Every structure is written in structure tokens, then in C-alpha cells.
Amino acid sequence: MIRAGIAGADTAMAGELIRILINHPDVELTSAFAPGKVGRKVSSVHHGLAGECDLEFSPDINPAKLDVIFIDAHSDVADRFRMNTDRWPDLRIIDMSHCPSLDFEALEMAYGLPEINRKELVRGCRRAVVPRSVAAAAIIGLYPLARHLLLKGDVTVAYACPKDIDTEEKADMARQEIRHVLHKTQNSFNGEIILRKLDEDVSERGLKVVAEIPCTLDVNEVFRIYDDCYDDHNFTFMVSSAMPGYEVEGTQKTLLTLQKQSADTLTVTVVADCRMRGGAGDAVHIMNLLFGLHERTGLYLKAHKF
Question: What whole-number distance in Å separates Cα of residue 284 and Cα of residue 18?
């Protein structure tokens, strides 16, 4: 069994993570740390876990007794793991905090988006950072084009997500993240990512991204490029028409739709669950890869609605 701990276990995202981990067939959740919560039942904060989880918040986390730690906090305890990785060379660290000051490349942490970095994650990786939700969806939607050197000029990315992940600071950081990853994939891409809000509402789990890209290729050729890129991935799928968000809420799935609105413009629509993609689902997906498990282990989850 994989012995897991969480630093920052009182956050809403940690609650979602706990929901998955306690049902994961290969994980034993042994430590849940949150400042000021020591000795309380985890279910006293995450009420939906009542009857499912008897774990109490721990006073500290002992890395010698863990195989993996998930970080969703900016506390001194979390920083101890981020900055002293050489002390625990066998410990896997998955940072899902989206900390603004975190320089994950300087800390030699892999960018944990399996759709583009799966090989790096399975080949001896020990540390990874979970991408931001809007960035994850946008990159999944644009990566196949960058991989084929097809991004030209500015790219407009419109998005809709819950208000708690839609602050001005978080949006700007997502924009920088998108551009950084796309430029690393296609060095010749020198356009800007123009990020704007969609004029539509989504649920508390909803995430929708619509990207418009200059593209003269036939839609069938574009579909082939995307299909070749994602045909062996377990959570990203092409669909013929845009799907409502509730079709994927509660799951790790990402659905993509491709449309040519005109001969020289491609529209890519992406829907996902923002608590899973860029959050708890990606964290568990990364863990599965780091430990050589099948990607879908513990993530066979049904949608919340029909």
C-alpha cells in the first residue's frame, strides 16, 4: 500500500482529495495535517466524509513513515517538504497549492499535466506540481497544435469557472502558465495569450474554455492531429459537439470539441471539472503515474448528474 499524507488537509480541495484517496485500492491515508485542527475528526471539517473517514487531524507529518505527501497549503510544515527534498529522497511530493511564489522548475518539480508530460512522470520522477485549472484545460486544448508547430499569432482563450478560482491574480498566473508551456512546446510561438471571461455561468465544479486560433487546415486534418495526440490517454476525449459541464462533473474526464467557424479560424471548446482537473483528480492521476499504477486506478468516477 502507498502511505499518503496531506499538508493543508482542511482546504476544500483537500476534502476532494480525501474523498478519492479513502476509496483508492492502493492507498492508505495515514496523516492529515492542518494548523489549529489537531485532534479533531477530519469529517468535522469535511462533513461529507461523515461515516466514511475516521481519521483525525495530526499534529505533524513524519516523512519517514510516508511514501507520498500532497501539499495544499503555504504553512511552515508544507515549506519544510518543498525546500528540503534531499532529506527524503524516496518521498514523492505532489504540490497542488498553486502557490504564487512557487518556482517549480527551480525546485526540479515536473509539470504535472499527464496529457503532455506522462513520460517524465513515469520515469523516476519524485516531485510534481499540479497545474491551475484554467491553464490545464487551455493547454489540453492547444497542445496538439503547438506540438505540430501550428500556433501563429495571438491566441484568444475565453473561460468560465467558479468565482473562487477566478480572481484577477489567478487569471494572470494562468495566462502566464499557458504561454510558458506552449512556448516550451513550440519555440517559434511568439504570440500572446489573450485571456477573457465567457459571459455565462457555470456550477461550483464547472470549467469551460473556448480558444480561438488562426488555422487554415481542414477540420478533418485538425481532428486527426488531436486524435493522434490523445488516443492513448485515459481521460481526454474528442466529442462531435460541445457538451454541458454536468456531463463531466465529479470525474477526471476532459471533453474537447473542434469547430471551424471560418476557413481560417479554429475554435476549440474544452469542458472539465475544476475541482478535479487542476486539483484533486490531477493530484491522484500524478500519484498513479509516479508509482507505476494504471492511470485510472481510483479514478473510475461517475458524473454527479445526468
Answer: 10
- Residues 247, 240: Cα–Cα separation, whole Å: 14
Beta-strand (E) ranges in 139-253?
155-160, 193-197, 206-214, 236-238
pLDDT digits (tens, 9 = 90+) for 227-249: 999 999 999 999 988 788 889 99
Grid cell of 289 as nine digits = 503515474
- The residue type of 111 is Y
Site of grid cell 512522470: 121
SS3 56: strand
Of 97-111, 246-260, 290-304, which gets the smallest average pLDDT? 97-111
Q: Residue 220: is it exposed, middle or buried by C-beta count within 10 angstroms (0-12/13-18/19+)?
A: exposed
Q: What one-letter code names the amino acid at 189?
A: F
E strands, the chain, are 2-7, 27-33, 68-71, 92-95, 110-111, 127-129, 155-160, 193-197, 206-214, 236-238, 254-262, 265-273
Measure the CA–CA gap between 181 and 197, rounded to whole angstroms.
21
Tens-place pLDDT, residues 127-165: 999 999 999 999 999 999 999 999 998 999 999 999 888
Q: In whole angstroms, how far apart are CA 82 and each of 13, 34, 69, 70, 214?
A: 19, 16, 10, 11, 40
Q: Which residue has the cell 525546485?
A: 107
pLDDT given at position 261: 83
pTM of the model: 0.94
| Grid cell locating 160 | 468560465
Dist. CA 78–CA 244, nearest whole Å: 37
